[in-house]
Specification:
This protein is mainly beta and 455 residues long. The chain is 13% helix and 40% strand. The protein folds into four domains: 81 residues, SH3 type barrels (Roll); 96 residues, SH3 type barrels (Roll), CATH 2.30.30; 102 residues, no CATH class; 132 residues, no CATH class. The chain is elongated, with a radius of gyration of 34 Å.
Length: 455
């Protein structure tokens, strides 16, 4: 809150000036200021209670104290402090020095409707961020019912709800009472105009509301446990990665979201509270999370039927988008090696396999493989996907494995090897697969050799 002056003789009588000896050290220089001289004019950003001056008011500014972290500003004409003074102290963050009176008036006008706009926080733990983006660094965590000064609307990336759709609202530049500034999404804010009277601010001491472990947990991206298995084995499923399975605490929206195979569930909460050592509960829900290690987190919740369910999520050392880029690059490199070796391959018994640069194919003359290998409804074309891996023992015989995804049928899988003359492929039945890895050869393998066609 704004504090009143504590030293006597501060008011300057109209019939004379007295020097105000107040030690103001800025960059090692001691400044002496006469109380009649001004530094300039400024705009009050946070309303003063004593004397009662509303935010958006233009005031003369006389002194800046970096020691006391205050401005000394004049009160509007016709107004005095409770002690009868015509000047008062304003916390540095609560006033913006503009320069001339004309510039201060222009700045106040530019603030427009936000000059007296405040917001009440409706969600305990709602973050203020360094930039208007959900992924930006958190600079402050709000308590429920805490009051913010709204400085203006900001352009930023929209917050996304549990459905993946943008949430209603906008990013705003805001300031807390202690002067912390940043950006907050408005979905969990209640705006109001302050036109006089006290501002109700229900806050605790900053040190009491800090929870470093919770802050670190909320700052991390939590992915499905299966993603860690992919990283550890080096075998990546692009379809699964692109779904971004994982858990979002929803600290910007108050909606936690679990999205894993077979489960897409949200939890609307009012705050996140400690519930034991490295354990927190989402208030208003039956969801609880526990940090098992710096990179492993467990969620527990009750399903509609009453059963208790537990899920594990991991914080990966690499971003999922980077994994997608790496895996996409690996597949493209493998296909381009095959394309460069062809792109057309022929077999006397099994027809002609032709590849295009965009990973499409046509396969004509393959009737001897229908329907044992290729479904009768498959057609003659489709796309090539290098989405398979080989077990270590099969890597000694083949260079890789691929899926031919026919236009009118599911994928048909083959292992392959390239040589100077052409392409050898071996059919892989479903019984030979372990996830996306070819684990073993078929008991009676179908092997086809294509010669490279001269174009």
């Amino acid at each position: 809150m704004v504090s009143r002056l504590s030293f006597p003789g501060f008011g300057c009588p109209a019939k004379g000036f007295r020097l105000l000896f107040r030690g103001l050290i800025t960059g090692g220089i001691l400044l002496l200021s006469a109380c009649s001289s001004r530094l300039g004019w400024g705009v009050l950003l946070w309303s003063s209670e004593e004397p009662e001056i509303l935010a958006g008011t233009v005031l003369p500014v006389y002194i800046r104290s970096n020691i006391d972290k205050v401005w000394v500003a004049g009160v509007p004409a016709g107004l005095k402090t409770a002690d009868g003074l015509d000047k008062f102290e304003v916390p540095l963050a609560h006033l913006e020095l503009a320069g001339s009176r004309k510039k201060a008036l222009a700045r106040a006008e530019a603030m427009g409707s936000y000059g007296r706009t405040y917001a009440e926080n409706l969600q305990d733990g709602l973050p203020i961020r360094e930039q208007p983006d959900n992924g930006a660094r958190r600079v402050y965590r709000l308590k429920i019912s805490e009051i913010l000064k709204v400085l203006g609307k900001a352009e930023g990336n929209p917050a996304v709800g549990a459905s993946g759709d943008p949430l209603p609202g906008d990013w705003y530049q805001v300031m807390t009472e202690d002067g912390t500034t940043g950006y907050c999404f408005s979905y969990r804010l209640k705006f109001f105009e302050h036109n006089g009277g006290p501002l109700v601010v229900e806050t605790e001491e900053q040190g009491e509301r800090e929870d470093p472990e919770l802050d670190r947990l909320l700052a991390r991206t939590w992915s499905a446990e299966s993603y860690l298995t992919m990283v550890n084995t080096g075998r990546f499923n692009l379809e699964e990665l692109s779904r971004h399975w994982g858990f979002s605490p929803g600290q910007d929206t108050g909606i936690a979201h679990i999205y894993v195979p077979g489960l897409d569930q949200t939890f609307a909460y009012t705050g996140i509270r400690a519930a034991g050592s490295r354990t927190w509960r989402f208030e208003g829900t039956n969801l609880q999370m526990s940090l098992r290690s710096d990179t492993t987190m467990a969620l527990q919740f009750t399903e509609p039927g009453g059963a208790l369910r537990s899920l594990i999520f991991v914080a990966l050392a690499v971003d999922v988008e980077d994994l997608i880029i790496q895996e996409t690059g690996r597949r493209e490199e493998l296909f381009q090696s095959m394309y460069a070796q062809g792109p057309v391959f022929t077999s006397n018994n099994y027809g002609t396999l032709a590849l295009t640069a965009d990973a499409a194919f046509t396969w004509t003359g393959n009737r001897l493989l229908i329907p044992q290998v290729i479904p009768a409804s498959a057609g003659q074309g489709g796309s090539v996907t290098m989405d398979l891996y080989l077990s270590p023992i099969l890597q000694q015989r083949y260079q890789g494995a691929l899926s031919l995804r026919f236009d009118r049928a599911g994928p048909v899988r083959f292992m392959y090897t390239l040589d100077a003359q052409g392409l050898r492929i071996e059919y892989v039945p479903d019984t030979s697969m372990d996830g996306n890895m070819v684990a073993r050869r078929a008991s009676s393998p179908t092997v086809i050799y294509f010669y490279r066609a001269e174009l």
